[in-house]
From TrEMBL:
Its EC number is 5.3.1.6. It comes from Roseibium denhamense. The keyword Isomerase applies. Substrate binds at residues 27-30, 82-85, 95-98, 122. This is Ribose-5-phosphate isomerase A.
Length: 233
């Protein structure tokens, strides 16, 4: 069922795409529904160019004939459409379950608008149940891991960090980095944690997306809801 809701949210976002737009194109199963909906519109004559946020999305765009460009050619984008692992009422997000958080954040930051597409299971009152991906440089991994643990301890968060693996090896991102997944259960102050993590040498980025999403389409039993960010207290 959640696959159907992902598709509904993606199709709603595709309706916002107009000819001439420069798009950021996200990564993951929900974003793939968006690529498929976009490809149909392109085959009907819609003229757009997209910057894919991962090699996986790039391959799908090639397969489906969605025209692509690079962020170097188009450093300012009109609209990015991407999925999320969690979103709260302020449209703060956890992303990176698919490991593409770095390119996703660069592309979202280069866009005038970022639309999040999700099934309703992703909407939470507070972020943190989904493990927070922290992308780190392989050089000095143990030292960086200790620095991350010390930030978690300072903020009184659980010190559970797992190096992400794939097929028994460390998972390597498109940028050649590795990922530490932080099992925090609950993040009382996402902004503070984001700032602390960003300041650690060796941390390339993390999956907290704050003040980037401008709108979300969340699909569930009652249809597709449009969500605008609540102003933070
Ligand atoms: O951040 C992401 C990839 O890095 C994805 O957007 C996130 O993991 C959601 O994936 P899905 O749409 O498959 O549930």
């Amino acid at each position: 069922m959640s696959e159907h809701f992902k598709q509904l949210a993606a199709e709603r976002a595709a309706e916002d795409v107009k000819s001439g737009m420069r798009l950021g194109i996200g990564t993951g199963s929900t974003a793939e529904h968006f690529v498929r909906a976009l490809a149909v519109k392109v085959s009907e004559g819609l003229q757009v160019v997209g910057v894919p946020t991962s090699e996986r999305t790039h391959a799908l765009c090639v397969e489906l004939g969605v025209p692509m460009t690079t962020l170097d050619n188009e450093p300012e984008l009109d609209l990015t459409v991407d999925g999320a692992d969690e979103l709260d009422a302020h449209l703060s997000l956890i992303k990176g379950g698919g490991g593409a958080l770095l390119r996703e954040k660069i592309v979202a930051a280069a866009s005038k608008e970022m639309v999040v597409i999700a099934d309703s299971s992703k909407a939470v009152s507070r972020l943190g149940a989904f493990p927070l991906p922290i992308e780190v440089v392989p050089f000095g991994l143990e030292a960086t891991r200790r620095s991350v643990l010390s930030v978690l301890s300072k903020l009184e968060l659980p010190d559970v960090l797992h190096l992400r693996e794939k097929d028994g090896q460390a998972f390597v991102t498109d940028g050649g980095h590795v990922i530490l997944d932080a099992h925090l259960e609950d993040i009382p102050d996402a902004r503070e944690l984001a700032m602390e993590l960003t300041a650690i040498p060796g941390v390339v980025d993390h999956g907290l997306f704050i003040d980037l999403a401008t709108r979300a389409y969340v699909a569930g039993e009652d249809g597709v809801a449009e969500i605008l960010p609540e102003t933070a207290a």
